[in-house]
Design goal:
This protein is an alpha+beta fold. The protein has two domains: 164 residues, no CATH class; 175 residues, no CATH class. It is 23% helix and 25% strand. Strands 2-5-4 form a three-stranded antiparallel sheet. Strands 7-13-10 form a three-stranded antiparallel sheet. α1 crosses α2 and α4 crosses α5. The radius of gyration is 22 Å and the shape is elongated.
Amino acid sequence: MKRTLLTIASAVALTIAAASFNSCTKQEDAAQGTDKQTQNPEMTQEDVATYNKIMGFKTKVDYIKENPMYKSGEEISVDSAVWYLDAAVNFTHAFGFEPFSEFYTDSVFIEIAVDNGLVSLDDVSAGYFELVDKIRDDIYAQVQDEGKQLYTSSTILTSEENGNIILKTTSVIGSNEATDETPFEEGWMYGERAGSCNDPNIFSDANLEIIQATRDYRSEYIIDVGDNWFAYYTLPEKTIEIISTDAYIGSNGTDLLLNLADITPNDNLHDKLMFYQTDEININWGIECIETDDMNFYYDMMHKVIYDIVPNNADFVADWDGVQGLTFCFLPEIYMPGYFTGTIEDKQQLYNSIKITYRTRRIAMDREYPLPL
């Protein structure tokens, strides 16, 4: 039985000459799904350039740290600083390819002085090591589970106050290796953490279990590690929200979440790829047991939404713009709020709402990294 935990809340580059401190741009060639991957991929030109940028940054900040009297005098843009901090943490310490079964999420903040949109590389260097220390001490150290590692980390600019930029880093710590069992061998109640169909005392439900399984089995769909290579994730990042009752219209004018292969339409089961109910269809509307076969159906359809529908329909759904060329990284919400109800045209509805994060995927032919925190 899997559980998820939530809180509120050096190196030599392949070619140092390529380590220019320019602002990051969207990369369009990241692999998406196993059909576009191989067991032994090669680094693209963009992968090499990204690797060199990160390693050049790490070489410089390490030198600045080891020589505190040295002042580089170098300045970079705020956007570049955010990109480098995010990329260096993920490249150096994130084990996104591990099949963890439990996840702990929390955030930390750092401040860096800014002047006319520029930040000193010396201050960015200090900020980088402060950020790593905070992730290690304030988040990683709080997890007591076995085999824990940083899974993924996301750094964003939140504000600028009193001559400083405020950066927020949200990190996910993974632990306890997932098993290779079939995703679902029992039914679960829909929402409200109402337990399994057979045991109401379990603090979980169908929504939690589907999201947990999607996390656990991500490595079956995205190959992120080999004998002499690993994948890591950088900005740009795109997080989207999908609500099962909304109509996301594709190129053929059809709601992309409709299950056109449903054997029995309009029966509150398999009508859409994500579970929903409406009392227009079933007067006995309410939380119900989703049986084993149906749990596996919605698990499979979650993957269809994440890996197929969203990346391939960004041209038709405005909210999904920016996902193309990126790779599914994580589900930032640990629940799908199936217990939320809404009234639409006097019809009561029960629906799912999920958030999905896609990031830029890069290959590194370097098994010295990542390093445990």
